[in-house]
Amino acid sequence: MKGLELSLIRFQNQVRDFFRRLWPPGMTLRQDHLRWLYAPGIFTFGYALRTTITSLIALGIALWWELGSPQWAALTVWMVAQGTRGKSVAKARWHLFGMVVGTICAVLLVAAFPQAPLMFILLLAIGIGTFCFIGTLLPGPATMTNYRIHGMRASGFTYAIISLDGIADPEHIFMTAMARATYIVLGIVLESTVSSLFQFKLEERAQDRLAANFLTAINGAAQTLASLLSGDTQVLKKARGVFSNITTLSDQIEFAEVEMGSHRGHEGDHARAALARVAMLLSRGLDLAALMQGPCGMPDAAFSATSSKVEAFLKDMASQLEASDDIHPVLARLAALQAACRQSVADSLDEEMGSPGSAPTDPQLVQILSQQRMLNYALGEILDELEQALIQFDASRHPLLHDHFHYRLKTFRDWQQAFTNSLRASVTIFGSGLIWVTTSWSSGLTFMMFVSIVCSLFSTLEKPALATRAFLGGAIIASIVAGILVLWRLAEPTTYEIMAVCLFLPMLAGGLAFAYPALVLGAVSYNLFLPILLGPGNQSRLDEVAFFNTAMPLVLGLWYAMWSFRLVLPFDTNDMRWQMRTGILRGLRYIARARNLPTTLYVVEHNVDRFVRLLTNAENTPDTIIDAYLQGILSAMTIGLNVIRLRAILERHLLPPEAQRAVSDMMGRMAQFSGRYGGHYGRTARSAKFAIFHLQQMAGQADNLGVRLEIDSALTCLYVISYELDHNQKFFDASSPYLDPVMA
Fold first, then answer.
1. pLDDT in tens, 62-94
2. CB-CB contact of 644 with 596 (8 Å)
3. I need a labelling partner for 672 at 20 to 30 A (CA). Which of 73, 279, 317, 666 fits?
4. How many whole angstroms separate alpha carbon 265 and alpha carbon 514?
5. What is the radius of gyration, based on Cα positions, of the chain?
6. Cα gap 552→483, rounded to integer Å
7. 620 near 653, Cβ under 8 Å?
8. Closest CA to 150 of 231, 79, 218
9. Helices 600-616 and 573-593, packing angle to 10 deg
């Protein structure tokens, strides 16, 4: 007895220690983590209620039509439904497109290889891999909100479920395909119809959202630039959220365009252009920051007075724009500041060049005046970019008659990533097919179907294993809930109405979880797989064996896919950063020698895309490494923009011959910048300083005003390039492994 008591005491202590590790002493269980369930927001609850009712209606209609697998109609509703009307319609369109493509490909696959299992598996894997390859190359970031990519995901999804269902009965593949297509169309039509009933003043709210997005972006940029003018020259390199916010808001514009409907004009194009100009505005701020930290860092009284006025204007600009629809008072203040910058430049030139026949100006004074003009010129460029952003914003708020403006989405294709995503998906699916063939598992086709679904959905992501792990958690919860419903509650109902009552609360909980950011992927998995695990039908009811033969392949399929994603071409953040840095250096060489120059907007947007990608994949990387790479990306963007401007100056042929030659030599070095073996970094940095020295010598000798201004413009670009090269040497020298010990 004493031994038994000691064992019980030991067990109690172990249980107590376990719970202490979960909740240390003094720590209370936070109930707000369940707030999404017991106290959701009104819009969240409305979305969950609307989608639950729609999915139950789709299920009821499919049962009424006596379709063979009615659960696919309810599943489609959950797959298409989103929080806003614009997202739902955009996703529904691309899902419908993907369904058509996937259905045609599935029919062709089963018809071609009805009795050749290995060829069937191989072509299934290659087909889904091809969809992933195309999806990775489509415009926009590879996120779950990019519905162009979702079109390819839907193609792979449909391709898998139809072909794997049809290969068991290839003679009726056409009927199988039409049945699956009917479920999907039914779900899409119902979701679109029901969601349209709950929209009020949709166009007005879409217009307001466009305006609010721009005001959010411009306010962040304005406050950042105001801090720069107040003396914080490092603020632009600390402002991570400003650049990320621009990309996120730009990605949402197409949904507002959908909500504005057929009566919209080019408001979305102007909004995209306005946000792009905000990014350009920040890039001009980087130029000014480099000049303020370089030789031009001691501003004179004129620049200090102008910059103080600009700082005050930037701080309250967003509130003025929000308070009134009339943008002209803001543009009038901006024009006055632009005039002040131009006047400062004119006064400086007048002081330097003097009157005809006057004594030559002291060379040291010439250099000081030139540097002050550079500061005023850079500040003026910031104001010019701000003016363009405000004009585009006003055009998005007040549509113009007979407007033909178009601003297309930029595409930054990564062919290596597309090939990696494609190969990873193909290998994973082919491996699952080999498991089915070699084991003759009776549920092998179901196992393959779930693996194919996961590969279609997540192989276009950079971290598919992480997404699949969250999906696996949601599938386990769905299996538990479905097990309770199938083995207990749904054994009794004999009518659809009672069954719908039993399903209402479990589905509603899934809809509420979807709106909680930490549970999004798990909620998507739960909502998708719950109808499949329930398997409702008119003439049948799932028993224990049928349920476990569906739940077990589901959990095993997701577990297998998760480990396959970890083992087959796994994502490596160190390698991603190394490849990004190599691409940046290659891009700088291209800009210096390319016949067809990219636009400055393209360079800015490409580097902002890199910026956001780096932040998205930061994971557990130390902040010092992330900050160093972010600084390197911004520095490379600044150098690239100034190289483009220098090439434009060279093409105008206004510089004196010696100055033209010095800048051309510098461009020749930049065309080999940090190339093979990294031997050209030092030469490029020295050639930039050499060009600065020569242009400074010639600055005081130019009598022509146009030539003098051209020399100032070239010196501004060279000063910025030289500063960035000096302060980011390790990033730009390709012979250095930089900060990643894995690459050392």
1. 988 887 788 889 999 998 888 777 778 888 889
2. no
3. 279
4. 33
5. 31
6. 12
7. no
8. 79
9. 170
